[in-house]
């Protein structure tokens, strides 16, 4: 079943728990499981207040997601699962045998029973008190066969005890709290040589640490569920976990070691290489759903399932070029460019280097500005219209100045896109704190019933700045109410409750890019990528919906119409003419091209 090692915390932010863990050493006490032919030891236990149904849910999550407790594992592939309560797993049973015959013999479930317990799926129930045990039984016969990521025990048991009627206190003055439940971790140890068998069982420090981490995880998740914890980050919404992880494993095996060993940048290859491998795996699976891929055989009319031929890709702001290299090596036609060359480009084969170019992207709508006419260099500029491969899928991976432009470029090219934001820049290329939405989005929010009723969050220093707009009653009320002290007055730099509610700069940037994509008619999708980066949210625009006028947006829309719409958006967001914004963009882009390249 699930595999365990020295266990890593799940990283989930559990809500305030009603009871903190209080582990008690049980190695010198009688074990919770006592069988004559097996050496069991209960390592630790702790009181708990969560009932059996929560325990079942937590254990099922730990079984199906072993990555919660082991950083070495992706997931659990369930070979066999049944809700049958029959104690017998006799292979002569026709239906059961029919289901098990396709499973390798060494992977078939064991016929294992505990006296006094009834089998219910993977759970066993004691008949009198509610005692629930989940057993992990590895398919090995001796300790030497155990994988490195699993504790070297023959069986592992998670026990949950629940008293329906709380026991009475010992004395009237006894104030010690009595909790209705407890959880414990037990090991069944491998047989030891005869001289050592008579001694009391001893655990290695590693096994003791593992038991503690297991107990902490079970207790933390159980108490958190009881306190009403709701998962905030949902993964694998666009691509199933198995598809993504299988592709990632294949790419990592094929390219990971080679790229890490050849890395010549000063940055950490462990981050950049495996981050780009994860993004490449995600793109490969997204494209599998969207396009007929290169080399894919399609039989019969309509065999593509509505998919179109892969149009190619362009990686804008490609940085170190690793993502472009992987995709090209996998057979996907495309290219990448960046304002600065990277040392990493020269470790790639010559046929890959041909598809990596040093170019400055100056959007086509800026090309008519006075600054553009004075400084235009056709060899180093690109206008963002990819005429050689119309409809190329646009990739924007931590592209900084190009991030906000990504949905606009996709719209101008009648293409799909993926944007993985990092640093916040406006449409003139200047650093800024992005708002939560575009100005058009804010206008729509104000005019939509039920949406504009809520006043946007403000920092404390932004409150009560405009007394002219307040009613006399409000002014009188605010005069009576004492003002909150500012940091200089209170001497505290701790964030206030209002400040904690404010979205982060990164969250605001992602929201702003999403709003820009919606302004040009994209059906926006989002995914939290499984990559080693805190900047792991991607915004995907695979298709466009009906635009505001009701006509279907698509290839029929003339470029001139799209261009004019993009101009209006830029002027609306920046509050000045496209000529002025274009001049600012070009000045910054030229300065960027003169800087030395970084590792990304």
Automatic annotation (TrEMBL):
Residues 437-500 are annotated as: Disordered. The keyword Methyltransferase applies. It is found in: Cytoplasm. InterPro entries: tRNA_uracil_MeTrfase. Signal peptide: none annotated. It catalyses: uridine(44) in tRNA(Ser) + S-adenosyl-L-methionine = 2'-O-methyluridine(44) in tRNA(Ser) + S-adenosyl-L-homocysteine + H(+). GO terms for cellular component: cytoplasm. GO terms for biological process: tRNA methylation. Keywords: Cytoplasm, Methyltransferase, S-adenosyl-L-methionine, Transferase, tRNA processing. GO terms for molecular function: tRNA(Ser) (uridine(44)-2'-O-)-methyltransferase activity. The keyword Cell inner membrane does not apply. Its EC number is 2.1.1.211. It is an enzyme of class 2 (transferase). Belongs to the TRM44 family. Adenosyl-L-methionine (AdoMet)-dependent tRNA (uracil-O(2)-)-methyltransferase. This is tRNA (uracil-O(2)-)-methyltransferase. It comes from Friedmanniomyces endolithicus. The gene is TRM44_3.
């Amino acid at each position: 079943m699930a595999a365990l090692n020295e266990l890593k915390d799940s990283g989930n932010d559990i809500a305030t728990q009603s009871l903190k863990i209080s582990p008690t050493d049980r190695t010198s006490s009688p074990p919770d499981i006592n069988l004559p032919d097996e050496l069991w030891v209960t390592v630790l236990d702790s009181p708990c207040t969560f009932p059996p149904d929560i325990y079942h849910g937590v254990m099922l999550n730990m079984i199906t997601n072993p990555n919660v407790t082991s950083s070495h594992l992706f997931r659990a592939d369930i070979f066999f699962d049944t809700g049958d309560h029959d104690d017998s797993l006799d292979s002569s049973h026709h239906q059961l045998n029919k289901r098990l015959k396709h499973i390798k013999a060494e992977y078939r479930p064991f016929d294992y029973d505990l006296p006094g317990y009834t089998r219910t799926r993977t759970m066993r129930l004691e008949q009198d008190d509610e005692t629930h045990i989940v057993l992990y039984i590895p398919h090995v016969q001796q300790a030497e066969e155990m994988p490195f990521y699993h504790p070297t025990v023959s069986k592992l048991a998670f026990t949950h005890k629940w008293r329906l009627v709380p026991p009475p206190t010992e004395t009237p003055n006894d104030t010690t709290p009595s909790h209705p439940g407890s959880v414990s971790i037990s090991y069944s140890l491998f047989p030891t040589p005869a001289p050592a068998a008579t001694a009391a069982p001893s655990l290695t420090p590693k096994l003791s640490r593992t038991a503690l981490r297991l107990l902490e995880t079970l207790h933390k998740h159980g108490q958190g569920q009881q306190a009403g914890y709701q998962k905030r980050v949902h993964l694998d919404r666009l691509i199933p976990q198995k598809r993504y992880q299988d592709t990632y494993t294949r790419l990592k095996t094929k390219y990971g070691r080679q790229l890490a060993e050849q890395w010549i940048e000063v940055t950490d290859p462990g981050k950049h290489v495996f981050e780009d491998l994860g993004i490449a795996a995600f793109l490969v699976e997204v494209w599998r759903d969207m396009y007929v891929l290169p080399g894919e055989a399609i039989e019969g009319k309509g065999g593509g399932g509505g998919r179109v031929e892969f149009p190619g890709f362009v990686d804008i702001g490609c940085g170190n070029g690793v993502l472009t290299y992987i995709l090209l090596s996998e057979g996907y036609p495309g290219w990448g460019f960046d304002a600065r060359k990277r040392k990493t480009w020269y470790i790639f084969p010559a046929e890959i280097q041909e598809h990596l170019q040093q170019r400055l992207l100056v959007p086509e709508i800026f090309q008519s500005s006075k600054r553009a006419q004075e400084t235009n260099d056709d060899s180093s500029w690109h206008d963002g219209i990819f005429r050689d491969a119309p409809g190329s899928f646009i990739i924007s991976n931590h592209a900084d100045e190009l991030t906000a432009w990504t949905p606009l470029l996709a719209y101008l090219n009648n293409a799909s896109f993926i944007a993985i934001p990092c640093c916040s820049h406006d449409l003139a290329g200047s650093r800024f704190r992005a708002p939560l939405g575009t100005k058009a989005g804010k206008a729509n929010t104000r005019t939509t019933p039920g949406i504009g009723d809520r006043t946007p969050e403000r920092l404390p220093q932004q409150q009560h700045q405009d007394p002219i707009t307040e009613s006399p009653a409000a002014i009188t009320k605010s005069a009576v109410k004492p003002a909150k002290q500012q940091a200089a007055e209170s001497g505290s730099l701790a964030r206030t409750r209002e400040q904690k509610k404010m979205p982060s700069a990164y969250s605001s940037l992602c929201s702003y890019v999403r709003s820009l994509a919606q302004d040009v008619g994209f059906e926006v999708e989002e995914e939290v990528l499984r990559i080693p980066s805190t900047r792991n949210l991607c915004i995907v625009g695979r298709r466009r919906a009906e635009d505001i006028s009701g006509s279907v947006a698509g290839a029929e829309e003339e470029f001139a119409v799209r261009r004019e719409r993009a101009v209006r958006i830029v002027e609306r967001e920046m509050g000045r003419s496209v000529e002025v914004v274009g001049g600012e963009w070009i000045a910054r882009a030229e300065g960027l091209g003169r800087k030395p390249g970084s590792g990304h």
